[in-house]
UniProtKB/TrEMBL annotation:
Boundaries of every CRAL-TRIO domain copy: 319-495
Every PRELI/MSF1 domain range: 3-175
Function: May play a role in innate immunity by inhibiting the antiviral RIG-I signaling pathway. In this pathway, functions as a negative regulator of RIGI, the cytoplasmic sensor of viral nucleic acids. Prevents the interaction of RIGI with MAVS/IPS1, an important step in signal propagation. May also regulate the SLC18A3 and SLC5A7 cholinergic transporters.
Pfam family, one: CRAL_TRIO_N
SMART domains found in the cross-reference section: CRAL_TRIO_N (SM01100), SEC14 (SM00516)
One GO CC term, this protein: Golgi apparatus
Species of origin: Cyanoderma ruficeps
Name of this protein: SEC14-like protein 1
Gene Ontology molecular function terms on file: RIG-I binding
Origin superkingdom: Eukaryota
Length: 715
């Protein structure tokens, strides 16, 4: 498995030229890096005007590895080749490094760059990326990987310290300013010097990145990490190391790398509506920074939020009066760490009455609104306290808890709420204080604990009776001034006292079922299943030419091909039977086929857009300006892996990829809309379809432009 690293952008508040003077002092050896034993110049090039300086060094490293492993490998030192390409005119330094030792067994590549800060020409930005691929190593592949990652992580931490050490050394020598390069009066020819062992390295073209405008400190310069391998993405992809520390907390270099890489992947597949950085970080923490696992649950959560319009719940949904009167919970100041504090008087709450009066879905929606409000309060407290706050504290008072609270439908509703919150709000609970736990509590705990994540369970603190008033109790976590009055404090708590819900407010099972369906079908999106040989198709009839068909869909599972067809005649309506050729039903969504098998492409219908291959997890928005009236068919088709062109046999990678799609089934969630061309101002701009973005989770959303003479798909 290839290990990758991508750093955030680190900013030195010193001019580029002074940073370069400090950097050069690292050679031929650096006492601050004990493993860096020596380096020899093997190749050097200088342009006559002095603007370009390319130098290659062979670096000798003493890796901290077990003596036995070195003896088996037959080496005491490891050699790397480093190529530095300095362009004083553009004020850039690009660094490439690769391993020379064991290059047939281990492939290591590193790319670094020093560039001028886009907003302050007297500051310097540094960025680096690296990859490690161990093919084989005498059966010690896992050991070598761990050693390599440990050594590299250690050196990353020292990198900025080393530059600052040499900057201080320069200052002690009276060097606080290095003039910028200026072109000589005349340049007639170029000369170069090189060692006879290798051919001269050519000069490189370095892009004029320093002239880019409009970027904030967080949105650092989008410059190539190396001349030969530019970093993918846009300036918005870049994260400043100072921003990470201020708003996200202290992360290890590898944790920073995981955040940046997952963020870049989301930027590529969910353009314009990626979640905020702190939300991405929560999912990474929930899966111990395993990118693949975090990406899977994050994509599932984003699809869930989009389908149920969770991002707009605080602005569009008003809790019923019954909840406002009888739900004994509310926000109450903050704890000693600055986390928002939520108080829940569960023992005073009539869970049976609430379920009978409102239903399970209304309770779930209310809990979701509480979590959404918690996310908002975390952002506000981060600004107020000047440090990252990404979770809240929950104080649960169980005074009054009895067997009435163990009513089976109520416990069922509680378990469902826990399941949904665990899946979509990971790492939001910083601490849970359970006070005055009665004897019946172990029964409740036995029922709910299997549904709670192990990491979450570690945050639970349980106090029986009045134990919370003693040492290690409530005062260790909450200031005395804000302890609620019902717990013996002096602060008036505005949380409702709860009480029994009047039976006159109870509703019948039929009424509750209809209300539940209404709550969770209030979505503009539909779900569909796509099978191998059975695409899902949507028919759109166009009366006026130059109308605009817009679409917004997420690929929830598998890979699909998206097509748009036009026909002058209407296809036959799909058959109703689930076993027929035109319609397949499944629990994950419907499947409708409209194009008759006897129809021929080019005769009965035509393709109006090029096929678009969409990968699992991608979010796609786009539009098509119709040229003719008639019937348009949007089709989502199962994507089959292409066979090898020379042998007509599937490739190994394709076979492995195809196995990941169980039973040859894909799932999509989609929304389509037809609007008049005079009302169209870009992809998905109507009132409802604009809901496709994650407004509460995204720092910003972007819209794509649309030409009336052509169609466009934004991914």
């Amino acid at each position: 498995m290839v290990q990758k690293y991508q750093s955030p952008v680190r900013v030195y508040k010193h001019p580029f030229e002074l940073i370069m003077a400090a950097y050069e002092r690292r050679f031929p050896t650096c006492p601050l890096i004990p493993m860096f034993v020596a380096s020899d110049t093997v190749n050097e090039y200088k342009s006559e005007d002095g603007a370009v300086h390319v130098i290659e060094r062979r670096c000798k490293l003493d890796i901290d590895a077990p003596r036995l492993l070195k003896k088996i490998a037959g080496v005491d030192y490891v050699y790397f080749v480093q190529k530095n390409s300095l362009n004083r005119r553009e004020r850039t330094l690009h660094i490439e490094a690769y391993n020379e030792t064991f290059s047939n067994r281990v492939i290591i590549n590193e790319h670094c760059s020093y560039t001028v800060h886009p907003d302050n020409e007297d500051w310097t930005c540094f960025e680096q990326s690296a990859s490690l691929d161990i093919k084989s190593f005498f059966g010690f592949e896992s050991t070598v990987e761990k050693i390599a990652m440990k050594q590299y992580t250690s050196n990353i931490k020292k990198g900025k310290e080393i530059i600052e050490y040499y900057l201080k050394q320069l200052e002690e020598e009276g060097i606080t300013f290095v003039p910028r390069w200026t072109p000589p009066v005349a340049c007639k020819s170029e000369s170069s010097t090189s060692h006879p062992r290798r051919p001269v390295s050519p000069a490189i073209n370095i892009p004029e990145s320093a002239t880019k405008e409009g970027l904030s400190n967080k949105e650092i310069l989008n410059t190539s990490s190396s001349p030969s391998e530019p970093t993918a993405g846009t300036p918005d992809d870049k994260l400043d190391a100072d921003y990470i520390k201020r708003y996200l907390g202290d992360l290890t270099p590898m944790q920073e790398s995981c955040l940046i890489r997952l963020r870049q992947w989301l930027q590529e597949t969910h353009k314009g509506k990626i979640p905020k950085d702190e939300h991405i970080l929560r999912f990474l923490r929930a899966r111990d920074f395993n990118i693949d696992k975090a990406r899977e649950i994050l994509c599932q959560s984003l699809t869930w939020r989009k389908q149920h319009q969770v991002d707009y719940i605080l602005d569009t949904w008003n809790p019923p009066q019954v909840l406002q009167d009888y739900y004994a919970g509310g926000w109450h100041h903050h704890d000693k760490d600055g986390r928002p504090l939520y108080v829940l008087r569960l023992g005073q709450m009539d869970t049976k009455g609430l379920v009978r009066a409102l239903g399970e879905e209304a309770l779930l929606r209310y809990v979701l609104s509480i979590n959404e409000e918690g996310l908002r309060r975390c952002e506000e407290n981060t600004k107020v306290f000047g440090r990252p706050i990404s979770s809240w504290t929950c104080l649960v008072d169980l005074e009054g808890l009895n067997m009435r609270h163990l009513w089976r439908p109520g416990v069922k509703a509680l378990l469902r709420i826990i399941e949904v919150v665990e899946a979509n709000y990971p790492e939001t609970l910083g601490r849970l204080l359970i006070l005055r736990a009665p004897r019946v509590f172990p029964v409740l705990w036995t029922l709910v604990s299997p549904f709670i994540d192990d990491n979450t369970r570690k945050k639970f603190l349980i106090y029986a009776g009045n134990d919370y008033q003693g040492p290690g109790g409530l005062l260790d976590y909450i200031d005395k001034e804000i302890i609620p009055d019902f717990l013996g404090g002096e602060c008036m708590c505005e949380v409702p006292e709860g009480g029994l819900v009047p039976k006159s407010l109870y509703r019948t099972a039929e009424e509750l079922e209809n209300e539940d369906i209404k709550l969770w079908t209030e979505t503009i999106y539909q779900s569909a299943s796509v099978f191998k040989g059975a695409p899902h198709e949507v028919l759109i009839q166009i009366v006026d030419a130059s109308s605009v068909i817009t679409w917004d869909f997420d690929v929830c599972k598998g890979d699909i091909v998206f097509n748009i067809f036009h026909s002058k005649r209407a296809p036959q309506p799909p058959k109703k039977d689930s076993l027929g050729a035109h319609s397949i039903t499944s629990p994950g969504g419907n499947n409708v086929q409209l194009i008759d098998k006897v129809w021929q492409l080019g005769r009965d219908y035509s393709m109006v857009e090029s096929p678009l291959i969409c990968k699992e997890g991608e979010s796609v928005q786009g539009s098509h300006v119709t040229r003719w009236p008639g019937f348009y068919i949007l089709q989502w088709k199962f994507h089959s892996m292409p066979a090898c062109a020379t042998t007509n046999l599937p490739r190994v990678d394709d076979v492995l990829a195809s196995l990941q799609v169980s039973s040859h089934k894909c799932k999509v969630m989609y929304y389509t809309e037809v609007i008049g061309s005079e009302d169209f101002r870009g992809s998905m701009t109507s009132l409802e379809s604009s809901h496709s973005g994650f407004s509460q989770l995204s720092a910003a959303t972007t819209s794509s432009s649309q030409s009336h003479s052509s169609s466009m798909i934004s991914r």
